[in-house]
Design goal:
This is Sensor histidine kinase inhibitor, KipI family. The protein is α+β, with helices and mostly antiparallel strands and 198 residues long. The protein has four helices and 13 strands. The strands form four sheets. Strands 1-2-4-3 form a four-stranded antiparallel beta sheet, with helices on one face. Strands 5-13-6-7 form a four-stranded mixed beta sheet, covered by helices on one side.
């Protein structure tokens, strides 16, 4: 791991892996060191705003091979598996569309970090058989609620936007509401399950 200063009272921790970042984030979030104003996790980094010295001291003595034990919040989303790329995902995986849906719904996912758009969570735990690249040419319009996958992640588009993930289906769940408290449905560390509905 490597620390890089970011402004007067923040630092970016470059991690060796997504798992190490998740462990660092969970460790700091659980300990809540004095002075920490915000934590912003990324795929392989953690931005610490405020209390940097306390966080460095905490992580120097921490086991970052896995997140600390705790009871994560769990969210279940109902999904209609009728996505534009379901047949493509099935073909590239060498299995039926029903098998893709079964694999996607049997897994339990973890929100590793959020980004791209408000409320968008990058969910880890995608079965290896479903890991596929982004589309060669991104779409200019992906409807809100679209459930997709790309690489090692699966996720849900919280609002209409461009995007290049392979689309499996759609949920009617609201992932981001600026008037709600909290506004985002997903937070790092949450567990997510998908449930197939007609």
């Amino acid at each position: 791991m490597r620390w890089r200063p970011c402004g007067a009272d923040a630092a970016l921790l470059d991690c060796d892996s997504l798992e190490q970042m998740r462990a660092a984030h969970a460790t700091v979030a659980a300990a809540r060191p004095a002075g920490v104003v915000d934590l912003v996790p990324g795929a392989r980094s953690l931005l610490v705003v405020g209390g940097v010295a306390a966080v460095k001291a905490l992580l120097d003595d921490a086991d970052l091979t896995h997140p600390p034990a705790g009871e994560p919040r769990e969210v279940t989303l109902d999904v209609r598996y009728d996505g534009e790329d379901l047949a493509l995902v099935a073909s590239d995986a060498g299995m039926s569309e029903d098998a893709v849906v079964e694999l996607h719904t049997e897994a339990v996912y973890t929100v590793a970090f959020t980004g791209f758009a408000p409320g968008f969570g990058y969910l880890t735990g995608l079965p290896a058989q479903l890991r596929q690249p982004r589309l060669e040419s991104p779409r200019t319009r992906v409807p809100a609620g679209s459930v997709g996958l790309a690489g090692e992640f699966t996720g849900v588009y919280p609002r209409e936007s461009p995007g290049g993930w392979r689309l499996l289906g759609h949920t009617s769940a609201t992932l981001f509401d600026p008037h709600a408290d909290p506004p985002a449905l997903f937070a790092p560390g949450d567990r997510v399950r998908f449930r197939a509905v007609r």
